Amino acid sequence: MRRKLGLTFMAFFLMILVSLWPGCRSQKDGQNISPRFSVVFPESVEKIPLDGRLLLMISDDKSREPRFQISTGPDTQIIFGMDVDGLDPGEPAVIDGSVFGYPVAGLKDIPPGEYQVQAMLNRYETFVLHDGRTLSLPPDKGEGQQWNLKPGNLYSTPETVTIDPGKNDTIDIVLDQKIPEAALPEETDYIKVEKMRSDLLSEYWGRDIYLGAHVLLPHGFEDHPEAHYPLVINHGHYRNPYLFDLFREEPPDPDLKPDYSARFDWEGYNRTVQEYAYKFYQYWTASDTPRMILITIQHANPYFDDSYAVNSANLGPYGDAIMYELVPYIEKKYRGIGEGWARFVYGGSTGGWEALAAQVFYPDDFNACFSACPDSITFRSFFIVDIYNHENAYYLDSRWKRTPRPGNRNYLGELSNTMEELNQLELVLGTNSRSGGTLDVYNAVYSPPGENGYPDPIWDKKTGVIDKEVAQYWKENYDLLEIMKRDWATLGPKLRGKIHIYCGDMDNWYLNNAVYWMEDFLESTKDPYYEGDIDYGDRAEHCWNGDHHRPNAISRLRYQQMYAPRMVERMLKNHPPGADLISWRY
Question: Which residues of 241-257 are buried (b: 16+ CB within 10 A; e: fewer)?
């Protein structure tokens, strides 16, 4: 009996020794080994406690700062993210093996080697909304919701470190830099910068909220004080500090160092942009050019670089604020005609969706929309996902297979990412739809608020499982095709001749799929027939806008030149009695 107990004790003792011996640890224990990054900010940089999203970037490319090397494409570097709440100066925030990353899941998955590392804190502020919700969100600071450029954000000087995922090393990082305030854009004789407080949005957000506009005045504006002008809204992403970056009053800079555009495979594309910006100026000032007011709208918010120009439960009444506060303000100040027959809207991608949405939600306030490569105008094809019939956004519905859904392609169909990867990056950049990314903004615009006060996501960010109740809310409120189907008896007569949609049939984001659904409806509806046009560019990528004679790289620089003659044609055809068709045609 004594011998048996002795053997049992010896076996137990040997088990303890084996479990503690570094070379003999179990695989499960080994999974907990990873480096740790301890991140602090000193009082010399910021003296108050901070909330926000702490980001850690790791790169094996030393050509640029790591914060500028994160993307959805194959050349992306590595990023990890975690929320911090009330982080004090000098208090360490630790990013370890438990923190989720992209495109590798954890620090332990990084191959051993020498890397450039950098940390950044995307700062949040507390918003108390009109309905009592208290949210912690990243405010826009004049940069258009770019986390790596946002004024006030803290970041560290990049440093080179050796990472060994098999060791529990602690690497210290100090957020020793703060991004300065954004420079204000400069006005010219043609370009004006407007900013106005919105009563509607300020009431919603519980603080002063401003709408802005960059205004391109018609040639001869000062010389023709009696003239009143049509208004054109060019919807799209936030623009700062370049104002109308496609309008240049001077010839191209002969000393400009040419750069390469990977998107268009175009050497010296920056020179091409300047060349066509100057051509736009020449067109704008030519004697036979229709005189109009052209504006872009500045409506960045805590979720994205623009609001999608509609009323939203999470963003507030941006649609009404634009239409009933900003537009009348601009038209009054700059002598706009101020009537729906003399207003037009166009845009591409985000702006393409906004253009069509503005025409649908405010059918009497515009005479036509020109929607190029619009974001998904029906969620039956939300990118590549059918949110009504698919069960999972990341993988094909299959019992035995696990086939990823594609995210982005080129004109040959070659993929650069999947739907899951796109969402993984946004999840690293921010929880609760706070990444500032393209997919998260749809939750912010289209979804109802969830139980935690933040947007109710259309699908689980980690698993891709689609929430059918949220999908139904999207369908009823923001699916432009379903809304038009439902309300065509009243909408149809108001939209006759006003809808013009253009998309490449190899759009990088599969946006042409939704356009096919819209075309099927509009072309089959006869009561009334829509009397517009839908067109496709053969093998054309994002963002084809209806030009069959020029490549995307050029046609995207010529929106106004393409659509202005058709606007004039519309006004001459369907103006009301007594309309001013003369004062602006000089």
Answer: eebbebbbeeebeeeee
